Amino acid sequence: MLGFFFPANNMTELNGKDDCKLAEGKVQKKKQKAFGADLKNYLKCMVPHIESGIKTSNSRNVMLSAEEVMQWSQSLEKLLASQSGQGVFREFLKSEFSEENIEFWLACEDYKKTKSDYLHGKAERIYEEFVQSDAIKQINIDYQMREVTAKRAKDPTPSSFDEVQKTVYILMERDSYPRFLKSKAYLNLLNQLQTNTSK
């Protein structure tokens, strides 16, 4: 079955309209239209590689099928369980200037797997980057939740961020996720994969 290959780690930005080279470095914040154009160009660049069976040797690739992309519409949990889903959703959130939510959620997932010796350092970094009132990527939580999280981060346990992570998850589930499913980026990706599957 024909599908698309996406890098397992992150989606990367294209370097120019007609250039199939993937740009390295930080992806600039873009409007939703720009994201759709980038995704379209990315897909155009990947089609020849897929059809000829070529994979880049220095990156792990994941086969992306219409079935997997359709599963993303079943729940946010299924979307986030997919590496490719995380990448596409992250790019969508960047287009809405709200990528801090997915980045915080992923940081919390990573934090839960941290050995106890390293909990304090990671908890401090997560708090400073996402939770404190002047954080660069401040998440949208109320004052009380911010205070409770600050206390838990000072004396960290593997579950220190569970409550605030759940709050951010619910926010994404109720707000960003439904918009993502109606977005041109998601619908175009699904349509492209379904078209290629039926050929």
UniProtKB/TrEMBL annotation:
Subcellular location as annotated: Cell membrane; Cytoplasm, Cytosol
Annotated membrane topology: Peripheral membrane protein
Residue stretches making up the RGS domain: 75-190
One example GO MF annotation: GTPase activator activity
Chief subcellular location: membrane
Keywords of the record: Cell membrane, Cytoplasm, GTPase activation, Membrane
A cellular component annotation (GO) from this entry: plasma membrane
PANTHER family reported in the protein's UniProt record: REGULATOR OF G PROTEIN SIGNALING (PTHR10845), REGULATOR OF G-PROTEIN SIGNALING 1 (PTHR10845:SF34)
Protein name (Swiss-Prot/TrEMBL): Regulator of G-protein signaling 1
Organism name: Bucco capensis (collared puffbird)
Gene that this sequence comes from: Rgs1
